[in-house]
Structures are given as structure tokens and as C-alpha cells.
Design goal:
The chain is an alpha+beta fold. The protein contains three helices and three strands; from the N terminus they run H-H-E-E-E-H. A three-stranded antiparallel β-sheet has the order 1-2-3.
Length: 81
């Protein structure tokens, strides 16, 4: 199983959310079709043209915030990405 798929499985199974690095989440977003559209201060904004969704993520000490992980999880499940 590829690293990207392992990250996705961990996220969808809500395993170890406190250990998700910001880089892992960016890798996952690109893997499922999101494109980094712009950066506003420390917030990075990703868009997905196929589903019309926007995701904003912000690093905090190299990690993502739990509510952002929940938001990404819901989008991946809802649209079967």
C-alpha cells in the first residue's frame, strides 16, 4: 500500500489524529484531487474543481487542527475521493 493510501486510511479510520503532520495532509489533499490555489498568511487554501469544494488548512506546530481533519474526512467520504 502506498504512503498516500496509508495516510488516507488513517484519516478515514480516525486513527492517531494527534500525529498527522501538516505535510501529510497536504500530500493527501493533492492525492485526492485538490489543488493549492493560494496562501493567505498561514492559511493554505485548496480547491477541487470536480466537486466545487474549498478546504482551508492552517499549520499549528507542524500539525493540522482536528476540526480541519474532520472536515477533510467528511469531504472524502461524501464524494468518495
Amino acid at each position: 500500500m502506498s504512503r498516500k493510501n496509508k495516510i488516507k486510511d488513517r484519516l478515514l479510520n480516525r486513527q492517531g489524529w494527534h500525529n498527522f503532520s501538516f505535510d501529510d495532509i497536504e500530500t493527501l489533499l493533492r492525492h485526492v484531487g485538490f489543488i493549492h490555489s493560494r496562501t493567505n498568511s498561514s492559511h493554505r487554501i485548496y480547491t477541487h474543481a470536480g466537486i466545487g469544494k474549498i478546504v482551508t488548512i492552517q499549520p499549528v506546530r507542524g500539525k493540522c487542527k482536528p476540526y480541519q481533519l474532520a472536515q477533510i474526512t467528511d469531504i472524502i467520504k461524501e464524494h468518495k475521493l
